[in-house]
């Protein structure tokens, strides 16, 4: 059973370094989002095209662990390719499930269409890092800002424009949502589908990258 690790938008596979050894002896495969690193871009950049590209690299029966946008893409992948995954883990992915939270997310989608969208992106990333290891947080933010805008902007907009509730309700694969900073109502989330469970790490001050800031707690949550 292969464990496939998918980072978030503007993020890189090295960000899983602190959790990857914990999946031994299972083989681990780290992917990049299209348009990131050595991965060629997809056109058009949509959640569907990104999910389909990732699906080409995922062995049947894999456990997919996706952080942030990597988790949203993993969710869409599971919906579009039934039977490909055996488990799905969503690390602090932007998947609100209440009307008020969805409205806040939709207003942010509008901000991505404005000329100063990169400033909005930088502010969002900095504010979501959390109190742990400020220098590491600066490295993460720098990586996001250095990623090709042609890959980042449309994908970020697609994530913010998505209503994930129908996709979550239709999942046919056991799924774990690990919340550390997102505005996701875990009770409502669990109620959408009996195959969806959730763990809350919010009290740890982990920020949006729990696999970097509290890796042991992430591994314990997944193992449990």
Automatic annotation (TrEMBL):
<dbReference type="InterPro" id="IPR029058">
    <property type="entry name" value="AB_hydrolase_fold"/>
</dbReference>
<feature type="domain" description="AB hydrolase-1">
    <location>
        <begin position="3"/>
        <end position="221"/>
    </location>
</feature>
<keyword id="KW-0378">Hydrolase</keyword>
<dbReference type="GO" id="GO:0016787">
    <property type="term" value="F:hydrolase activity"/>
</dbReference>
<dbReference type="Pfam" id="PF12697">
    <property type="entry name" value="Abhydrolase_6"/>
</dbReference>
<protein>
    <submittedName>
        <fullName>Alpha/beta hydrolase</fullName>
    </submittedName>
</protein>
<dbReference type="InterPro" id="IPR000073">
    <property type="entry name" value="AB_hydrolase_1"/>
</dbReference>
């Amino acid at each position: 059973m292969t464990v496939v690790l998918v980072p978030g938008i503007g993020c890189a596979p090295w960000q899983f370094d602190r959790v990857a050894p914990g999946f031994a002896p299972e083989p681990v495969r780290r992917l990049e989002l299209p348009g990131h690193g050595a991965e060629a871009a997809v056109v058009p950049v949509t959640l569907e095209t990104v999910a389909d590209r990732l699906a080409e690299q995922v062995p049947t029966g894999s456990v997919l662990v996706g952080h942030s946008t990597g988790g949203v893409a993993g969710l869409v992948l599971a919906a579009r390719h039934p039977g490909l995954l055996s488990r799905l883990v969503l690390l602090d992915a932007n998947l609100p499930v209440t009307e008020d939270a969805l409205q806040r997310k939709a207003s942010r989608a509008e901000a991505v269409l404005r000329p100063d969208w990169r400033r909005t992106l930088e502010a969002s990333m900095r504010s979501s890092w959390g109190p742990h290891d400020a220098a590491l947080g600066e490295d993460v933010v720098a990586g996001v800002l250095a990623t090709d805008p042609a890959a980042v902007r449309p994908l970020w907009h697609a994530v913010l424009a998505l209503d994930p509730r129908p996709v979550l309700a239709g999942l046919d694969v056991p799924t774990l949502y690990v919340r550390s900073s997102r505005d996701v109502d875990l009770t409502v989330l669990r109620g959408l589908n009996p195959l969806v469970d959730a763990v809350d790490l919010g009290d740890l001050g982990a920020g949006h990258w729990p696999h970097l800031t509290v890796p042991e707690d992430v591994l314990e949550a997944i193992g449990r």
